[in-house]
Design brief:
The structure is a single chain. With 209 residues, this protein is mostly helical. It has one domain. The chain is built from four helices and two strands. A two-stranded antiparallel sheet has the order 1-2. The chain is rod-shaped, with a radius of gyration of 37 Å. About 5% of the residues have low confidence.
Length: 209
């Protein structure tokens, strides 16, 4: 009973689609990107704009009505007398009637603004959650690929040389091989988790990274 140390089954080749693409991302920049790309945030921003325009129109409706006129007249022998006339009018019943419209429009602005803030907070929370998952998966994949897998490969290399030289038994060699295979599987799992976390973050932000 034995194992060929040159058997290709002991090597692991990952396709390019599963390669580790190291990203350097900032949560603040991702938050800004997500707020700008979110259709929900954009929709509520438009609602706030409409509500503010309606409030402005309501206020304009209760402002005094101003009039201005310029005239020329003749007094006695002087035909070149000029004058201006200013006027202001504001019916009391009109003011009282439109104050309700102003209050209604102001309430509309408050409601739309609160809906916008709530939507922005929800987007920010979703981005923060996705970013935390990305950061954790990044740490794990780098730990596996840069530390644990190289260590397992070195252990297997030493065990292989020692086994060929008769310095260790078959059980020790198999243990080293099992350690290497476990490290490779863990590295692959970490890489899959990382790529999934990046995809989720891209979906949350609304743009490729």
């Amino acid at each position: 009973m034995g194992v060929s140390l040159e058997h290709p089954a002991t090597s692991l080749t990952l396709s390019d689609s599963l390669g580790y693409r190291r990203l350097t991302l900032s949560l603040d920049s991702l938050q800004l990107m997500a707020q700008g790309m979110s259709p929900q945030v954009s929709a509520y921003q438009n609602r706030v704009g409409v509500a503010e325009a309606e409030r402005t129109a309501a206020w304009m409706s209760v402002l005094p009505s101003l009039t201005f006129s310029y005239y020329r007249q003749t007094v006695g022998d002087n035909p070149d007398l000029y004058g201006v006339k200013f006027g202001i009018s504001l019916p009391i019943w009109f003011l009282l009637d439109n104050r309700g419209h102003v209050q209604e429009a102001s309430a509309g602005v408050a409601i739309a603004s609160e809906a916008l803030r709530s939507t922005q907070s929800a987007v920010a929370l979703e981005v923060a959650t996705a970013f935390a998952a990305y950061a954790n998966s990044k740490r794990q994949v780098e730990l596996q690929q840069l530390e644990l897998l190289p260590q397992a490969e070195e252990i297997f290399r030493v065990a292989s040389v020692s086994y060929q030289a008769g310095e260790v038994g078959y059980v020790e060699f198999l243990q080293a091989l099992q350690t290497l295979n476990s490290a490779r599987n863990a590295s692959l799992d970490a890489l899959l988790d990382y790529n999934a976390a990046v995809l989720r973050l891209e979906k949350t932000v609304g743009s490729s990274l």
